[in-house]
Amino acid sequence: MQQVLKSTTSASSRLAAAGLRIISGAARGIDTAAHRGAMQQGKTLAVLGCGVDVAYPPENARLLRVIAETGAGQHGVATATVAAMMGMECEIYMGKEDTIRQALNVYRMKLLGAKVHPVTTGTATLKDAVSEAFREWTSRIDDTHYVLGSVMGPYPFPEIVRDFQAVIGREIKAQMLKKEGRLPDVVMACVGGGSNAIGAFYDFIPDKSVRLIGCEAAGRGVDTLETAATITTGKPGIFHGMKSYFCQDENGQIAPVYSISAGLDYPGIGPEHAYLHDIGRVEYVAVTDGEAVEAFEALSRAEGIIPAIESAHAVAHAMKIAPQMTKDTLMVINLSGRGDKDCAAIARYRGEELYE
Amino acid sequence: MSNIKKAFADGKAFIPFITCGDPSLEVTEQIVYAMVRAGADLIELGIPFSDPTAEGPVIQEANIRSLAAGTTKEKIFDMVRRIRKTVVIPMVFMTYANVVFSYGSERFLKTCREIGIDGLILPDIPFEEKDEFDETCKACGVDLISLIAPTSSDRISRIARQADGFVYCVSSLGVTGVRSEITTDIGAMVALVKKEKDIPCAVGFGISTPEQAKKVAAYADGVIVGSAIVKLCAKYGKKCVPYIEEYVKGMKDSIK
Description:
The structure holds two protein chains of two kinds.
Chain A: H1 2-17, E1 22-24, H2 30-41, E2 44-46, E3 65-70, H3 74-86, E4 89-95, H4 96-101, H5 103-111, E5 115-119, H6 126-139, E6 144-146, H7 157-165, H8 167-180, E7 186-190, H9 195-201, E8 211-219, H10 230-233, E9 235-239, E10 242-246, H11 271-278, E11 282-288, H12 289-303, H13 309-321, E12 331-333, H14 343-349
Parallel strand pairs in A: 1-2, 3-4, 3-6, 4-5, 7-8, 7-12, 8-11
Antiparallel strand pairs in A: 9-10
Chain B: H1 3-6, E1 13-19, H2 25-37, E2 43-46, H3 57-68, H4 73-84, E3 91-94, H5 97-103, H6 105-115, E4 119-121, H7 131-140, E5 143-144, E6 146-148, H8 155-161, E7 167-170, H9 186-196, E8 201-204, H10 210-217, E9 222-225, H11 227-236, H12 241-254
Parallel strand pairs in B: 1-2, 1-9, 2-3, 3-4, 4-5, 6-7, 7-8, 8-9
Helix pairs in contact in B: 2-4, 2-12, 5-6, 6-7, 8-9, 10-12, 11-12
């Protein structure tokens, strides 16, 4: 244990020296070691990986393990990274279907020391990964924390995740004011559960001049059953610990949704988005697989930036509405992830088989 | 006295669960009659849901089979109407929030009262969120059954004070399904409830053998068994009725 603490202190010291801000849980042991190392070089920031009503670390709480669900695998990789750094066990629940289309991220999680459970129930996608993580957490709650990956699920998860993600919008605002001297006209982001979107939007909600647009996954089209556009096609419901909009049939059975994007392939949306839709503060639009793939390719060629297929949904809508806007319009697209993970799947979509 | 309390009036209650429509509603109806013959004191009827987050693999699969067979709420209501012509013991629905909410909670609960359903168990609605359904349940005379788990600790007293019908004590952590042993101090959980309110306590999750039932019944007013019965449906399909009758009889005898 002393060896681990020592190497953590030294590793985090080196990272801080390299200009990175060290983020760790304000706990004892390895976290303290991480903070200590970082403080030798610069700033450190404490993040509590739990709800405000959970006192951690009381002497008797032994959070040894984290579990998380993941769709595209981005949240799984992030959780596995933190767990590796903090010396915690990490188990990730991921739909079997998603482990195939996001194989690169599965490998990254394993590389970071996490155990990946392919979930075979239901549609074997994100919805089922969430259900399975819930089930697992109820069976082992004493030493395990559930790191929920979106602004969804039961209270207080939507608030915890939103507050962490809100750094995105604060950063957009600060940089925009610095560079342009005014607020942007449009901020847009893709929406599955909606974490990157609420993060980008949250600081702009009181700024009525800023148009906020959430881009949902229409899959093969909102008039087909193969869609995941919750606001466009869903109805109010109660599921996964939240009351929000859900894609469901006339009997209240949750619909087996579909999108090319594993991260947006979810039948619900965070409850705060449902509220922002109802009060008319945020517009929600649906973008098809085909439009997203075109945007994925267009941004890669035009800017040399390969966007995640999730984020490409926002890029696609931007490409659609930008021609109708004036030259001086300031539009922000939240590129919430990189698309390396999607290359094989997009190649398959275009009829090309890649051997990585 | 609510109808549910009658189940606990004559010794320890045996409470079997069945997923409606697995393998068909015709078979479910026959299972209910068989359970009554075998001495069941209260019956839990599961309305299938696409994503039953509190269930282990056995009941998850039963939900899938039932939905694939075309089971709907309306068909289940019709089955209950037929059953109520002869069966008088209390019956409750066990399902998930969206099944009730999407139908319209008031419409659902009024139908429950009309067809003779005495209570409702929604495992995905915690005590803190029960206002969504509680008022409508009370207005319709349907008991919303509260669940307590080994982790409920200081919430047990609060939950008990507002509990109706009976308190569903979850025997151990995790989802439904057969367990080889139950290690929770059931007696302590039940004592915490009884300190607050004189209400029957029934224990469920993981109980499958007469020995386990006997052990648990020593501390509680009733024993709930689901997965072990649903397993018989999975194994014997349409021919499961006599096997379930024999099983329920054995379990009831063990807690007499």
